[in-house]
Design a protein that fits this description.
ATP-binding, four-stranded antiparallel beta sheet, binds adenosine-5'-triphosphate, ATP hydrolysis activity, 14 strands, 337 residues, P-loop_NTPase, transport, Alpha-Beta Plaits, 2 domains, 28% strand, single chain
Length: 337
């Protein structure tokens, strides 16, 4: 447990609406976040990310399950670890007419952090040069980085950011991404929730994908994308029927889409051409299909009936079963409880 910054087992939360309806926000979540690096906590809107984070921070009470932060059970021992955790769950309030630096100095005084820390956190969030300017002149991205700077004042080991790039333009998103990456590289643990996969894929070392309050897949980005090391290839061939028969007989999964066959499960793309050539079937075109996190995410969440995205790439990928298998989530999906 000592090497996990966050761990949850069987975490559950059901909300009751004013009309007495029950909303199951989190249903048996098992989450492990290793110490050090950036962990993407991914799921479509409404999948239970914010509720899970709020339970970890002691802001919402769990109905069932256990949680630890740095090996300490929470909320029971939250006071012992809370100083190691910095979180942005809602936009903090800053004084618009004061500079970013002044705002941070006031905060540092309030929480007992040394003022020398202010210059350091401004630099860490690349705000050093603009620190003297008034808060109200900042772009949204700079405001968000000042919020991150504020959480860094007390040198937390774990930073929790809930959808930190919401509402930011591409430049702002890039700045936040770079800030998160450098925090992870310093050995801090960053948990960042998002429903925007492309963003997280570029910065996360490890990810957890959730849907309807349950873990669907987790591991390093490479593992989740296709940890089996098996290839998916797209190929064009004259005799599709004969090629399908040969490849299926070799235990590969073949799917026809228009003029192309998509073949999953080969150890290497060359295996596909060799098997076909052995039977005097020659490919006209062969392209290895690179899976990305977005595709995995769309397929996983589509299985949950969540409709995480538009048409996307999901239709051309067949790697999901492997990703799902890693968490054993197939047995529990689709219950709609
Ligand atoms: N206070 C509440 N009362 C009733 N239902 C709630 C409450 N908070 C959240 N929910 C519901 O619980 C489910 C999970 O919501 P949650 O905000 O945790 O998901 P999320 O993954 O963070 O989504 P988003 O990205 O939209 O914030 C949703 O169906 C949501 O409507």
């Amino acid at each position: 447990m000592a090497d996990l910054a966050i761990s949850t087992r069987g975490l559950r939360k059901t909300y009751r609406t004013r009309r007495g309806k029950q909303v199951v926000a989190v249903q048996g979540l098992d989450l492990d976040v290793p110490v050090g690096g950036v962990h993407g906590f991914l799921g479509p809107n409404g999948s239970g990310k914010t509720t899970s984070i709020r339970m970890l921070l002691g802001l919402v009470r769990a109905d069932a399950g256990v949680m630890t932060l740095f090996g300490r059970p929470v909320p029971e021992q939250l006071p012992a670890v809370v100083s190691r955790v910095g979180a942005i769950v809602e936009s903090p309030k800053f004084f618009p007419a004061f500079s970013g630096r002044k705002n941070l100095e006031l905060l540092a005084d309030a929480i007992g952090a040394p003022r020398t820390r202010v210059g350091e956190v401004l630099d860490e969030t690349s705000l050093g040069e603009r620190g003297k300017d008034r808060f109200k002149t900042y772009s949204l991205g700079m405001k968000q980085r000042l919020a991150i700077a504020a959480t860094l004042l007390k040198k937390p080991d774990l930073l929790i950011f809930d959808e930190p790039t919401n509402g930011l333009d591409p430049a702002g998103i890039r700045e936040i991404r770079e800030t998160m990456r450098s925090l992870g590289e310093q050995g801090r643990t960053v948990l960042v929730s998002s429903h925007i996969l492309a963003e997280v894929e570029q910065v996360a070392d490890t990810v957890s994908i959730i849907g309807q309050g349950r873990l669907l897949a987790s591991g390093s980005v490479a593992e989740v994308i296709g940890g089996t090391g098996k290839a998916t290839v797209k190929l064009a061939i004259d005799d599709q029927a004969a090629a399908t028969a040969v490849l299926a007989a070799a235990g590969l999964t073949v799917r026809a889409e228009g003029n192309y066959l998509f073949v999953d499960g080969a150890e290497h793309p060359a295996d596909v051409t060799r098997r076909l050539a052995d039977q005097r079937l020659y490919v006209a075109e062969l392209v290895p299909v690179r899976a990305d996190l977005e595709s995995v995410f769309l397929e996983l969440t589509a299985d949950e009936g969540l409709g995480a995205g538009g048409p996307g790439l999901a239709g051309s990928q067949a790697i999901t079963p492997d990703a799902v298998r890693r968490t054993g989530a197939t047995e529990t999906t689709g219950g709609g409880q």
